[in-house]
Description:
By secondary structure, the protein is α+β, with helices and mostly antiparallel strands. It has one domain (6-175): Aminopeptidase (3-Layer(aba) Sandwich), CATH 3.40.630.30. Helix content is 35%, strand content 27%. The chain is built from 7 helices and 7 strands; from the N terminus they run H-E-H-E-E-E-H-H-H-E-H-E-E-H. The longest helix is centred in the last third of the chain and has 13 residues, at 163-175. The protein is globular, with a radius of gyration of 17 Å.
Amino acid sequence: MGAPGLDESLRIFCAKDAERYAANLFRESFNARFPVPRDNVLLVPTPPEDWRQFVATYRWPDGNEETVGFLNWIRHRDAYLGGGMCVQKTFYRRLPREQFAECQRRGGIAQLLLEASFRELDDCVAWFGYCGDKRALAVDLRAGFQVTRHPFVVVKWREDLPPSKQAELVDAVAAVGPF
């Protein structure tokens, strides 16, 4: 019997307490403290109830589970602001060959996190990212984001809005600053 498929080993979910899963991964990736849901994080209100944190865990053949990805979203107006996306650096080279090929074919853990969150966070007109990393931007573009006229701000439209409404929302999100 061969190794299980990726879907049998990988679990992506929205966690109420993502810190217990992803604090170490976040610190390793950004050399920063984990973004615990709280108010006054950005220039706009960020009450804890507006936060959605997605975690990717992988169960190894020996039964051990490891956090391999994280993505943070904060609700703002009719959109979600995404940031803090990270993937465990050594994960891919440790995967069984068949699962590595499948994960690569599906875009990798970051793209799988984005796609799972899009399915769940469907009460918005758009998802925004603040991206300054070339590899992360490549993932965002594969996942359907578009660059905007604002440096680092990318958007994926869920609803078809008139161009004037799109521009208004993009400008409002850009005014938030880094998220």
